[in-house]
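Crash report, auto-generated. Payload:
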Amino acid sequence: MQDKFDFSELLPKSPVTPVRLELDDTFEFSCHKGIACFNKCCQSIDITLTPYDVLRLKNHLGLKSFEFLHQYTVPFEMDGHGMPGLKLKTRDETTACQFVTDEGCSVYGDRPTACRYYALGMMSMRAKDSPNDEDHYFVVREDHCLGHLEPRQQTIRTYRTEQGVDMYDEMNRDWRQIILKKRSCGPTIGKPSDRSFQLFFMCSYDLDSFREFLNSPSFGTVYDVSQNLMDALMADEVELMKFGFRFLKQALFGENTIPVRPDALEKRAERRRMLSEQQRLERHRETETGLPPDSHGK
Ligand code: SF4
Ligand code: SF4
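Recovered output after restart:
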């Protein structure tokens, strides 16, 4: 049995040529401004975003995470269990990308992974008992795309380099592994909790909230992170994103790479007990007096 992450999920629904290609195999394709179908692929989009896509796009647009998420994305479930994903929102009442202009893509230098891959798809597979994923490729052919008729042969490797895919894949590698693992262990441990999905969403897509969380007393009480590392995380969003993946692996799978303070869990349990006792007393008082919990009798 094999675990697999089907990267075609990050691509528009489209007919796929079922031929598996490796890095040094060639295919014929070219996309350029003078081509008759220029921009057609951006008029009907279905683009799933990765964490690094969100980071690059929000910075390109000069937005905070929550502003970008609100204006440019729509949430969806990546699987049948509630795993939160994001798609690029289309222009009002159309299927077109908000970033397409007559001149082409207005965020080209920071375009998402799926746009870089097109017209290739990638499937990542891991054999049971193997520590490494194996990537395989296939060509995505859509009728409107004339790029397949252009006489330009290239290897998958060359195309990936030209499109800047290697770096994007590297940035998202740990995240893809988390998705793979969450999917493969999900059914065996029951339905994942809402809390785990909230954490997944924050660490994957909402870096500004994750930064706030790292600066909060609740994080500092439990995790023992050096000041040097905290300074580095606050200064560099890529490092922050990668730390988010580490945090997720620890929180979701118990892969402990972030030191926990020795008495942290007892303190947190005690705080929760006190909070719950306080809430119980306030409810009791409200029932007895008819006063709302925060009125203090005034
Ligand atoms: S981000 Fe750019 S390349 Fe991707 S669909 Fe939108 S306009 Fe097209
Ligand atoms: S060749 Fe394909 S990818 Fe390029 S603009 Fe035309 S439809 Fe889009």
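Post-recovery validation: Residues 1-13 have pLDDT under 50 and may be disordered.
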